[in-house]
Amino acid sequence: MPEICRFFGIVISMFHKDHNPPHFHARYGSYKISIDILDFSILSGYLPPRALGLVMEWASLHKDELLKNWEAAEQEIPLIKIEPLK
Predict the structure, then answer these.
(1) Residue partners of 80: CB distance under 8 A and separation at least 6
(2) How many whole angstroms separate alpha carbon 18 and alpha carbon 58?
(3) pLDDT tens string 3-32
(4) Phi and psi of 50, rounded to 5°?
(5) Cα separations (Å) of 18 from 7, 13, 25, 83?
(6) In whole angstroms, what is the distance from residue 13 CA to residue 20 CA?
(7) Please, what's the b/e burial string for 11-41 (b: 16 or more CB within 10 A of its CB; e: otherwise)?
(8) Tally of CA atoms within 13 A in the half-sphere of 45 that contains its CB
(9) In the prediction, which pLDDT does 17 show?
(10) Most CB within 10 Å of its CB: which of 15, 27, 36, 76?
C-alpha cells in the first residue's frame, strides 16, 4: 500500500485498484481507518478523536490531491506525495 503522507505519527496511504468509493487509509499506532474522499465520511475503522481531527483537517486541505491520487491508483501509476500537516 503506497504511503502518500506521514505526520504526527499518522500514516496516510492508498491501494492501487481499490474498491469504490474513492477513499484513503490512515494508520495511527494500532488504529486503522478508511475515509471517503468526497464527503470525508468514515467507511470503516476507528482513530482516537485527536488523531481523527488531524486527519480530517489534513484531508480537507488536500482533497484535490487525494482525488488525483485516487485516479492514479486506479490506473496503477505512481502516486504523488502530499504535504504533511504542520
Answers:
(1) 4, 65, 68, 69, 72
(2) 21
(3) 999 999 999 999 998 999 999 999 999 999
(4) -65, -45
(5) 23, 11, 11, 22
(6) 15
(7) ebbbeeebeeebbbbbbbeeeebbbebeeee
(8) 20
(9) 86
(10) 27
Beta strand extents in 1-86 (DSSP E only): 3-7, 10-13, 23-28, 31-36, 42-45
Can you give the residue ranges of every domain in the chain? 3-74
The single-letter code of the amino acid at 42 is I
Question: How far apart, in whole angstroms, are the C-alpha atoms of residue 34 and residue 86?
Answer: 22
pTM for the structure as a whole:
0.94
* Partners of 31 in the β-ladder: 28
